[in-house]
From TrEMBL:
It comes from the Eukaryota. This is (rape) hypothetical protein. Residues 76-114 form the F-box domain. InterPro entries: F-box-like_dom_sf, F-box_dom, Kelch-typ_b-propeller, Kelch_1. The keyword Repeat applies.
Length: 411
């Protein structure tokens, strides 16, 4: 407990120093203030690193985290296993500040292992990330909502040009924004860019590009790997190619292509397999009800005709997939992967049937957001475990604009 309090005390002092960095750079008294705090138990190298960075000397820069740095203790007097547990018990909102203490702490905070330790310690916090668009359709930003439905601060702006037809996915507690179509010099250009938002460090970074630029494709995470399938390519052609990304290696690799090009589709992962549904195909008239299923163990595709067509919103809650189809915005189609069946759930909505909606999920419940700000629809909450007739409620969550998409991240 003492070690945990020391971590929190140190993060508090670090935040204070950050706000007074100019004074700190010109005087030693802030260093003395920090040294007199209970966090003196932390390594002197941390203070020296802070002093070097703030004064511009940057003596401790080492981008590849040398073996010497990795061999230094996280917290003197504690084994690294115990120290990692202490760091994991820090509230999620303080993790970005903790990641700025030193390179070793930053390395730990952004690691996959750190998320695992927080889960084992019972400390993971569930946050909902919602991409909203203003009424003019020109500016968007990510809003963050905690597990109690309270709004937190917005994310830093996404890097890169404004795009449509991109996809978002979560892997290892990080948000990935993949590819899409950008307007450059008056022309639509397919993108292969991939950006990652580290929710523990509150920062964006660029990952390896896709092998093939695309937009309006399907994307999902399965067993810790990210898959992209189909879509439109650089010349607007429909694609059948598929790729997989391994976060451990940071590399995209082509996998077996679909039997036919497909676009406007979406994907979900169930029982260790990738399901691609909806959209259109070159070999169907109108919209496709075919479900393409990829088995990573076999490295091959199979299919069934028990699917949905033009889906405008979808979300996985538990072991079920909830979808809204373009042709009917007043009902949800619910897919149960356990027995490969569908059921229909009516939405408690009135007014124009043209009003579109997007899904979110929080604490095992489904949220229904309006995708058109001017409709005036309240956010609805659906509890699949509640008794019939009591499953729908009005949520107090209110977005600042229309909902484009959302993801839930537990970290």
């Amino acid at each position: 407990m003492i070690a945990i309090l020391l971590v929190l005390d140190f993060v508090q002092h670090l935040t204070y120093l950050k706000k007074n960095c100019r004074t700190f750079a010109n005087s030693k008294r802030w260093m003395l203030r920090l040294a007199k705090s209970p966090s003196l138990a932390f390594p002197l190298m941390v203070f020296k690193k802070m002093e070097a960075v703030v004064s511009g000397k940057k003596r401790m820069v080492n981008l590849d985290l040398s073996s010497r740095l990795l061999s230094e203790p996280l917290i003197p007097g504690l084994s690294d296993d115990v120290a990692k547990l202490c760091l994991a018990l820090v509230p999620r909102a303080s993790l970005p500040s903790m990641g700025r203490v030193c390179k070793r702490w930053r390395y730990v905070v952004q690691s996959k292992e750190f998320i695992t330790v927080r889960r084992l310690a019972g400390m993971p916090e569930e946050w909902l990330y919602v991409l909203t668009m203003d009424a003019g359709g020109k500016e968007s930003h990510w809003e963050v909502i905690d597990c109690l439905g309270h709004k937190l601060s917005s994310l830093p702006p996404m890097p890169g040009p404004v795009k449509t037809g991109f996809k978002v996915v979560v892997v290892d507690g990080k948000l990935l924004v993949i590819a899409g179509c950008a307007m450059i010099s008056g022309s639509h250009v397919a993108s292969s860019d991939v950006y990652q938002f580290d929710t523990c460090l509150n920062s964006w970074s660029r990952l390896a590009d896709l092998k093939e630029a695309r937009y309006d494709f399907a994307c999902a995470e399965v067993n810790g790997l990210v898959y992209v399938v189909g879509g439109h390519g650089g010349d607007g052609e429909s694609l059948s190619s598929a790729e997989v990304y391994d976060p451990e290696t940071g590399v995209w690799t082509f996998i077996q292509s679909l039997r036919r090009p497909r676009w406007g589709c979406f994907a979900s992962g169930f029982n260790g397999k990738l399901y691609v549904m909806g959209g259109r195909s070159n070999f169907t008239i109108g919209n496709s009800k075919l479900v393409d299923v990829y088995n990573p163990q076999c490295g091959s595709w199979c299919g069934s005709k028990n699917g949905v067509t033009m889906v405008t919103a979808h979300v996985e809650v538990g072991k079920k997939l909830f979808c809204i189809e373009w042709k009917n915005q007043r009902k949800m189609s619910v897919f149960n992967a356990e027995d490969d069946t569908w059921e229909v759930v009516a939405l408690p909505l009135s007014g124009s049937s043209r009003a579109g909606f997007q899904f979110g999920k929080l604490s095992g419940k489904l949220l229904l957001f309006s995708s058109q700000e001017e409709t005036g629809h309240s956010t609805l909450l659906y509890d699949p475990e509640a008794a019939p007739g009591r499953q729908w409620k009005t949520s107090e969550i209110k977005l600042s604009g229309s909902c484009v998409c959302s993801v839930t991240i537990i970290a």
